[in-house]
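Async update (no meeting this week)

Hi team, since we skipped the sync, here's where things stand on the single-chain job. The sequence we agreed to prioritize is pasted below, unchanged from the tracker. I ran it this morning and attached the output directly underneath so nobody has to dig for it. Comments welcome in thread, and please keep replies under the output.
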Amino acid sequence: MVKLNKIYTRTGDDGTTGLVDGSRIAKSAPLMAAIGDVDEANSAVGLAAVALDAASEHGKMIARIQNEMFDLGADLATPPDIQFGFGPHEMALRIVPSQIARLEDEIDRMNDDLDALKSFILPGGTEAAARLHLARAVTRRAERSAVAANTERELNPLALNYLNRLSDHLFVMTRHINAAAGGDILWKPGATR
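Output:
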């Protein structure tokens, strides 16, 4: 359980921040950029959540995703364990295969109701879909940041898989939501020439 009595600690005043194992790294490190981008993506998902009915299928998916994005941030902030590597254990919260499998199952179920794409689509449509498009774009940035951080410090491969699948999930969810409101907004190449 997390318990925060005091928000400021002054320990980061020197430009470093602590990881789960107690080690400290520069706030400018690629790993911290990835963790920050995951936090920003979660905030964008939260912004989309307020445009959804929390009791709806989409609202419930988003609530699970937001919790998992905190798991993801904890995973990124936890170096591999000497004994367990990137496997979950009582001292490390890790992304696990079942979380990725659930995203894939939800993608497939939503996609079953959709027509095949015949064009790129513009980010927009309903308010919820437009906010989810923004969350998808920020999630793609978080994925790029995590891949970059992984070249410097080994990260849980499942965390990287989760980010990739999540952006796909958010994309399909935007299409699923827009389908109920008239469909995708299609890109018309060169339409304004």
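Quick observations from my side:
The longest helix spans residues 127-152.
The chain has five helices and two strands.
Reply here if anything looks off.
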